């Protein structure tokens, strides 16, 4: 790499976690992308690109929420599925210093495609890694192991406030993607991190599977 013998350097993950003798086995896995830097907080000289391969079983995404939703003790499960999606927006906007904006749109215009439910918020957004991890089955927003970057990094359970929505309303705990496939046939996530110019998009389609 052209590093002089008297020059210092560090090796980090894309989350800027320094690789050391102690955490090498935990952080360095097959396919992981690493940075070779002069310091952990060094500014990157150019944009980076990372290939991510993720192939879940068909049933994992499209059927995993069914049992828990249908086992809702006779209650109408649709509100709980929508609450799961709204919960993501409540959590994403929980630290907004300005007004929190969450919109729920039901789209039925055939000229615009199939009917859809759109949940739009002005939250902090997700990185590409967070967006990828959102698609992984059963990775809770409270679970972070090794180099895992949660789609709810920094999530803090809010204090309960009577008769209000407080970003902790998930009922079944099956996650947003299971709620999506309970309601419909595909999910499209479009997200821009608050501190980045990049816009990331993820599409999960039952038809594609």
TrEMBL record:
GO BP terms, alphabetized: double-strand break repair
A UniProt-annotated Pfam family: HATPase_c_3
Entries under InterPro entries matching the protein: HATPase_C_sf, SMCHD1
Protein name from the UniProt record: SMHD1 protein
Taxonomic classification: Eukaryota, Metazoa, Chordata, Craniata, Vertebrata
Gene label: Smchd1
């Amino acid at each position: 790499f052209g590093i002089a013998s008297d020059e210092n350097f560090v090796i980090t993950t894309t989350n800027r976690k320094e690789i050391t003798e102690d955490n090498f086995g935990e952080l360095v896995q097959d396919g992981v992308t690493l940075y070779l830097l002069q310091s952990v907080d060094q500014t990157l000289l150019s944009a980076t690109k990372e290939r991510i391969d993720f192939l879940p079983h068909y049933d994992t995404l499209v059927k995993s929420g069914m049992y828990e939703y249908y086992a809702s003790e006779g209650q109408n499960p649709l509100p709980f599925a929508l609450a799961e999606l709204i919960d993501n927006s409540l959590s994403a906007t929980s630290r907004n210093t300005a007004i929190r904006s969450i919109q729920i749109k039901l789209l039925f215009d055939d000229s615009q495609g199939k009917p859809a439910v759109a949940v739009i918020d002005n939250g902090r957004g997700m990185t590409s890694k967070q967006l990828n991890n959102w698609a992984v089955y059963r990775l809770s927003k409270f679970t972070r192991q090794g180099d895992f970057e949660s789609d709810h990094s920094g999530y803090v359970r809010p204090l309960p406030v009577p008769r209000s929505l407080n970003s902790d309303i998930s009922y079944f705990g099956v996650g947003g993607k299971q709620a999506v496939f309970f309601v419909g046939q595909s999910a499209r996530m479009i997200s821009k991190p608050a501190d980045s110019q990049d816009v990331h998009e993820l599409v999960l389609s039952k038809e594609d599977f």
